[in-house]
Amino acid sequence: IRLVNGSSRCAGRVEVKFEDKWGSVCVYDFIWESEWAIVVCKYLGCGPVVWSSPYAMFGQGTGRIWLQPVLCQGNEKSLQHCSNFGWGRHFCDHDRDVGVICEDALELRLAGGGGPCAGRVELKLRGRWGSVGDDTWNMDDAEVVCQQLGCGSAKSAYTASTLFGKASNITNLARVECQGDETALWYCKILGWGPYYGIDGYDTSVVCQGFSRLVGSDSTCAGRLEVRQGQNWTRVCEEDMDMKAAQVVCQELGCGAVLAVPSAGWFEAGTEPFWKGGFECNGTELLLSACAHRLPRGKGCTGHASIVCSAYTGFRLANNSLSCAGRVEVELGGTWGSLCASDWDLPDAHVLCRHLGCGPAITVPPGGYFGGGDGLLWRDAFGCSGSERHPGQCPTVVLGQPACRPGHAAAVNCSGSSTSALQGLWCAGTEDNLAQCNISEMAAAPTGNPEEVVITCSGSRQVRLAGGPGRCAGRVEVYVNGTWGTICQDTWDLSDATVVCRQLGCGTALAAPALAPFRPGMRPLWPDAGGCAGTEASLWDC
Fold first, then answer.
1. Signal peptide location in the record (predicted)?
2. How far apart are CA 1 and CA 205, in angstroms?
3. Cα separation values, 66 from 18, 99, 521, Å
């Protein structure tokens, strides 16, 4: 069996193959003949029957008519197992060639709404998208659409509206009557299967409530996760939530990257029942409802799932030929804007540069260094410590008056913006970046084949002596990953101390006391540090 002229293997005119030749199937429109369509869709693995017709709706065949099924039960393995008059024997003509649409041939979407859960209702039929036209479109119809698309319940229904733009001139469904509990729009009563052309003013559209939401905080991008189950909201067990599923939720809600899946105590517990099961996501789905559903991980819930997303959906550097230097721009609510430079500093820049894959920041140029941007500047002030992995993890506040002065846009030079294609560069050591070094003396550079220069930087790591009588005596403290900490003395010896003294420009080490005469320091306490031979230039080389 095959289906032809339907732009899909699951829709079209029914043809069967006999003696190595394809031919049509015809029937009269008697009630006892209608089960043939069930047999066809099941045989092809195309899901249930959506629509069938004995009136050559996919065109008339031109060859033999091989079968006229007289009586099908619907459970036959193939059409030839239905009662028939035999191969090539029939009492109907090509104007009764049967056609069928199985469920797998159809697609439904919402278009023009900027997301998957709001927009103009469109159906894909015979390979082409077209609108659903109806002058009596109501909330029952909209409910079926929203539930079918995994978007929760319907919030509003519109007809003859240009709220989401004008559709094409194709109408694939006309006059739909739903009860509200159908599993798909095509299982409602359909008075007209298209395509129809040139029917204007009847396009339908819906706005759905969405499948998931975050509640219990001041932000729509952080809170306790709740998902729709029918008409009601339910909580999700924290054991059934992971970072991939959380990323899908953040994307569905129009938020940025997932920052954390914190424990249940972060947000108010709520009283809603729990969703029975979890979600298997790969992280790229547009909706949480599109993820595979799975059974619960455990026997009960220890608490509800919570998610913290970044409110910022994008960060970029603009107005510079180098990808790792430029004016700082952020995306918020689908709109890009330049950031005000008033409270932009080096720790903020470090986090942004690393997030963009550009290494740590080198400098924060004055506001407007890479141009002032277009329009008003974002007044968000970041309070990064420098150790965050994403700018959205930094505390932020919206600056008050006075407004950011025009053109005072934040800028940054990341270390990744330095070029590696320079020869014979002469720097004094005080420049902010390599581009400021004196390249006019390149003619005096050594001749011959150049060799690559390799350097090792300490990055953001530092060492100091604290609690002593001066800068060359005291408790050893190191700054790693944005935090000062002390070193466990169990494996610390004079060779280690010699390296620290040399690194700090304090000469030779005189002692590395087993019992520190200086007051205790702060946490964390770094174990197993040291291991120096005594000849290294820096503690980080040990």
1. none
2. 37
3. 7, 15, 92
Q: Rounded to the nearest 10 degrees, how much is the dihedral formed by the CA atoms of 509, 512, 513, 515?
A: 150
Q: Which residues of 236-268 are buried (b: 16+ CB within 10 A; e: fewer)?
A: bbbbbbbebbbbbbbbbbebbbbbebeebebbe
Q: Is 161 helix (H, G, I), strand (E, B) or coil?
A: coil
The confidence score (pLDDT) of residue 445 equals 41
User: For residue 347, with 0-12 CB atoms within 10 Å meaning exposed, 13-18 middle and 19 or more buried, which class applies?
Assistant: buried
Do the beta carbons of residue 529 and residue 487 sit within 8 Å? yes
- 3-class DSSP state of 327: strand
281, 227 contact by CB (below 8 A): no
Confirm if 502 and 535 have CB atoms less than 8 A apart.
Answer: no
The amino acid occupying position 211 is F
Per-position DSSP letters for 204-242, written without gaps between them: EEEEE--SEEEESSSSTTEEEEEEEETTEEEE-BGGG--
Beta strands in 352-417 (DSSP E): 361-363, 380-382, 396-398, 411-414
Q: Quick check: 314 and 246 in contact, CB under 8 A?
A: no
| φ/ψ (deg, to 5) at 402 | -75, 160
Residues 6+ apart with CB under 8 A from 461: 478, 479, 480, 540
Instruction: Return the DSSP state at 355.
Output: H
Model pLDDT, residue 450: 59
Predicted local confidence at residue 242, as pLDDT: 87
Residues of the chain with pLDDT under 70: 29-34, 114, 297-299, 399-402, 417-452, 454, 456-460, 514-516, 521-524, 528
Q: For residue range 440-479, list pLDDT tens digits in order.
A: 333 334 456 656 676 766 566 788 888 877 788 888 988 8
- Picking from 271, 245, 268, the residue whose alpha carbon sits closest to that of residue 258 is 245
- pTM for the full predicted model: 0.51
In the chain the domains, ranked by start, together with CATH numbers, are 2-103 (3.10.250.10), 106-208 (3.10.250.10), 232-309 (3.10.250.10), 312-417 (3.10.250.10), 462-541 (3.10.250.10)
Residue 39 φ/ψ region, left for φ over 0, alpha for ψ in the -120 to 50 degree band, beta for the rest: alpha
423 phi and psi angles, rounded to 5 deg: -120, 145
Secondary structure class of 6 (helix, strand, coil): strand
Exposed, middle or buried: residue 91 (CB in 10 Å: 0-12, 13-18, 19+)? exposed
Closest CA to 305 of 267, 250, 255: 267
What pLDDT is attached to residue 309? Answer: 87
Q: Which amino acid is at 61?
A: G
Which own/partner contact pairs does 241-244 have at CB distance under 8 Å and 24+ positions apart?
241/278, 241/279, 241/305, 241/307, 242/281, 243/283, 244/281, 244/282, 244/283
Match 């990744």 to its residue by tokens: 416
Q: Retrieve residue 44's tokens.
A: 């092809």
